[in-house]
């Protein structure tokens, strides 16, 4: 599944960050969804701009997971360039992220950094292979938190089952769409399952319709 927030003009960031588009309830949804996930899949640019760190959950959510025999969800980053600075908070020794990259990438860029490098694909990260590798490790519930490029690629490969979209009544910000499609991307139809509203902000849940 994927979770994104945007303005009513479809922008996905303001000043290079998502915070200004979010609301307290959206932030709560963000955390709740994390508590369902086995792994959080995120594009490298989002990790760089948002300075991603390891997953932190409220104690009651941690307890619920512990009761179910589950640890905290892991972060999995998708990157071709591997231009990921060693001081990014996501590189936590106790919770090292997985970094999915491709065969042509220079993995020495991450030498000495606490991360598990996994090769999936030749010149692009093969996202279908990523999902298979995660499933082989019993990480079935994959939550993609963007960004727009990674999400566009996931949908392009028809790998998204469920899409949670928050629309805040804001216009402006960066010229970054919520989903960045590759040119001539195939049309994919989704089915609207639920709409909730809070103070002008819409929370929508879509599932993929497999016939198109
Ligand atoms: N509104 C929201 O809900 C939301 C959510 C997340 C992010 N954002 C915003 O989105 C902006 C970033 O957008 P973005 O689209 O540039 O970010 P992105 O999707 O997070 O990152 C793009 C990068 O991910 C890697 N990547 C993605 N797919 C790949 C593939 N198939 N193979 C190899 N590498 C792949 C590449 O990394 P390398 O460059 O390392 O090769 C690529 O440059 C930020 O401003 C952030 O705040 C908004």
How many domains make up the coordinates?
A: 2
Q: Main β-sheet: number of strands, strand sense, barrel status?
A: 5 strands, parallel
CATH superfamily of the largest domain: Dihydrofolate Reductase, subunit A
Averaging pLDDT over every residue, what do you get?
Answer: 96
Percent of residues in beta strands: 15-25%
Give me the strand/helix succession.
EHEHHEEEHEHEEE
Query: What hetero molecules are bound to the protein chains?
Result: NADP nicotinamide-adenine-dinucleotide phosphate
- Could you say what the CATH topology of the largest domain is called? Dihydrofolate Reductase, subunit A
CATH class of the largest domain: Alpha Beta
Task: Round the Cα radius of gyration to an integer and report it.
Answer: 17 Å
CATH architecture of the largest domain: 3-Layer(aba) Sandwich
Please report the total strand number as a whole number. 9
Main-sheet strand order equals: 5-4-3-2-6
Broad shape: globular
SS class = alpha/beta
Count of DSSP-assigned helices: 5
Distance between the termini: 18 Å
Please estimate the helix content.
10-25%
What ranges have pLDDT less than 50 throughout 5 or more consecutive residues? none
